[in-house]
Protein 1
Amino acid sequence: MGSITKEVLTDANPDVVWDAIRDVGALHTRLVPGGRRVTFANGRIVEEPIVSSSDSLRRLVWTAKAADSPLTHYNGCVQVHARAAGGSRVEWTADFLPASAAPVLESMLNAGATAMRGALQARAVAPISPRSNSGP
């Protein structure tokens, strides 16, 4: 099994970051453009059913489905941690099969982490938009 972890650091408050992450119905506007039906930078479209969400852990887990996917398994997890210096550390882990897909997924996660970092950093200085009612 392959595994990739990305870290996103932001000045945004952990509660603000978690609110944006857990709002799966507005992921496309609040966290990563392209949301739960994600269109990655390489053009691949993936549906991401939610597996679990924990407010107490600030943790969201999902799987991924794509008709043309070379993956036989994918599980993603994002968890928000407070930083001692202030702001947040977002840990994004993807576990997948086959492990040989790592180079393609590495590129996709790099692009996603960059988009996430920009959106979250904007949350550090801008007011929070209202949560949608379509979250978990």
Protein 2
Amino acid sequence: MTQPSLPSQRGAEAGRRIGVGLMYGLWRPRVLGAWKLPATGPAILAVNHSHNIDGPMVMGVSPRPTHFLIKKEAFVGPLDAFLTGIGQLKVDRTAADRTAIGQALGVLTAGGVLGIFPEGTRGEGDFASLRAGLAYFAVRSGAPIVPVAVLGSSERPGRLIKALPPLRSRVDVVFGDPFDAGDGTGRRTRAALDEATERIQKQLTSHLENARRLTGR
């Protein structure tokens, strides 16, 4: 079986630089705890998802290049080549996408940073409903999970585009402490993944609550 090609690390670094320029040009990011992301080695960023800018925002402010798993519907027209060129991963959410899974695990095996929206789709951004994919990647790879809370100001008037914070408004990005999802046994059974998902949800929810207290959001 042919191994899926790894996304471009150089492309992801270019994407990070583009994200820095766009995010700081359009909004006023305030980044807290970025130093908590391990400087080297594999890591998984688990990001809440309430704004369309969440991925680009985290990509831009993260200290390390990040490869996000992004729904294939976003890879349309010129965006297909662009997102692929900056090292992002196309995933089919309607089935077990073996290519995307292989690429994501390849990123972690190579010591890179994988970005995931564990809620699957954009919603309330409160980590209330997690998919099992995050637990699978964390348990399978042994990579630590770094929770990331993106807190914008979508509740305020002034948005020119639906689901985006008002331009030049403050957007807080809060990195949390890394943690391991597994129980230390190395089990990869369905029961083990269910238990890991429950542990992850508690950790992510706790981080989000702390981030809201810290930022006053």
Protein 3
Amino acid sequence: MENYIFELKMKVRDYECDGQGIVNNANYQHYTEHTRHEFIESRGVKFADLHEQGIDPVVARISLTYKTPLRGGDEFICRLNVKKEGIRYVFYQDIYRASDEKLCVKAVVECVCVIKGKLGTHEKFDAMCE
């Protein structure tokens, strides 16, 4: 993925690793989620405020492709881009090891907005995709 519009640098904590000393697969989903939340907040959108208005963005589908494992103490960069496809907001996220820019994970996360119990779009999310 090129043309990233946001990135977040993080560091692997030892407790995120399995017995082999590599990051447990489920933690990569946490990394991508944290990055999406930070991106959305950087655009002035707060999940708690949306929820109070009856607007709940939720993950509808996620796909992770593992390329190179991260290990305890590794610093990494999660980069993203987002596009609107119909009523879905599709986040394309890649995680790179900071020391050598080696691609570790490719993720595609499809989100939708549930607005007062019905699927819909929201202008604040639409604006993020422009």
Protein 4
Amino acid sequence: MDTLTPQDCSKRMARVRGKDTKPELTVRRVVHRLGYRYRLHGKELPGKPDLVFRSRRKVIFVHGCFWHRHEGCPLARLPKSRQDFWVPKLEGNRLRDARLQEEIMADGWRVLVVWECELKDREALARRLEAYLGPRKWRGRDEGG
């Protein structure tokens, strides 16, 4: 049985953001602090990736563990009520994500998914992002020049 009234549930669901989520903003800050520059929500790419690095042909999706079904993650637990609604909804999200990532890779792009639960260890996240993105391209004069 739901603990929320339909009106309360509707209000709660209306607050769920599709863009500029806290996990996404966290990843953006780490990427920027590392010295990389990016574009947001590439409209020309399938799934509108959260961060787009055009010159590198790389994208980053920042996924919430619950909404995108992070396998084996405690944050990806199923709700106890209305499973007839939630199971197909969340499984559909997972299948759509896989399809969109395949489409992007078929166009010659590389894809990285950062999960919400991975944001706890910022140092590990920074190392993973640097390994994925590769050497930074500095603008302007070289040091010592």
